[in-house]
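Key idea: predict the complex, not the pieces.
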Amino acid sequence: DTGVSQNPRHKITKRGQNVTFRCDPISEHNRLYWYRQTLGQGPEFLTYFQNEAQLEKSRLLSDRFSAERPKGSFSTLEIQRTEQGDSAMYLCASSLAQGASNTEAFFGQGTRLTVV
Amino acid sequence: SQQGEEDPQALSIQEGENATMNCSYKTSINNLQWYRQNSGRGLVHLILIRSNEREKHSGRLRVTLDTSKKSSSLLITASRAADTASYFCVPNQAGTALIFGKGTTLSVSS
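Result:
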């Protein structure tokens, strides 16, 4: 297992375009998280899944953001009608939840989005 | 979900010195986790301490947890330049997401 994989690593897009990022978690992990991080700040939580169920999405930044994990394996994060303020690093993490408790999360290297 | 509040926001020390970072949180937890982020290795889990534990060690790291004061500390002994990074505490309740705060930025100079 190579850990959490995110693709693409870098994405440059024009304002107004839609972008989709993919995250492949560690295979046996049932929880998957999405975060956004800007320079000098900690990771900002966006949403998370347990298997295919999206447990919290109220912190998605706007209705332009959506995420899916259709078969409980990989996940996608889509941003519609991108704005310059969406430029950031988007991080994915996975963990093996034991009951309701979180264990350690493993992070991918992130997708750096630049909106021009 | 809750986030921890790390203190200090920034810390500068010399190689060989010890570094102590503190974390406070607001409501009861199942466990508390510490993470490190540097430019080379991204965001990495360091240590998890459960609510019924008071102290935990891992190599040069020592974590304490005081649930009565809702606080935790991370001690890094004999710091190295490679310890230069941001450190985050993540207090965790059952059934909630992992929420990160602003972190403590540690600079270790040689």
